[in-house]
Every structure is written in C-alpha cells, then in structure tokens.
Amino acid sequence: MGRALRSSGEVKAVEVVDPLRVRFHLKEPWPDFMTFYSSMSASAGWVVPKKYIERVGDDGFKKHPIGAGPYKFVSQKEGIELVLEAYGRY
What we know:
The chain is of the alpha+beta class. It has three helices and four strands; from the N terminus they run αββααββ. It has helices at residues 2-6, 33-38, 50-63; strands spanning 11-18, 21-26, 71-77, 81-86. The strands form two sheets. It has a two-stranded antiparallel ribbon. The two termini are 23 Å apart.
C-alpha cells in the first residue's frame, strides 16, 4: 500500500499505527486529501487483499478489482464509470 501511495508525489510516508489504523505523512498541506482518497472513482484509498495483488499484478487487478466492503465490482470504463452492486454477505 505505501509504495503506491508514495508514488503519487503528495504522500511522503504511510505509517501502520496498529492493525486497524494507518497514518499518512504528507509532503505539504493538502486540503482535498480525504476527498481524493475516499472517492470510489479515484480508487486511491481502496483496501485490497495483498495476496490477490501479488498473484494477478496491477494489470490483472485493473481488469477485475476486488476489495473489502459492502459492494462488489461489476464493470468499469476507466476514468469514466465504475459500476458496483451491493454485496449481500457483507
């Protein structure tokens, strides 16, 4: 997680505080940080299974993303549309 976030240029470091919390260290003040990282369309703040990413790679994940939460991936048009549906077993 930290490597991808730091490569964005605005994030200096990502610190794992405990199993349920992380702390972002920014290079400078960024008022829209929470808006950007909480947006589903930006996908920057998605929580994803590490083993899945290691198995399918970044390109495989882009074709069929999975994560944790109340929705599941249906389809996408990159940069235009992300279609999700409710995940009944959440």
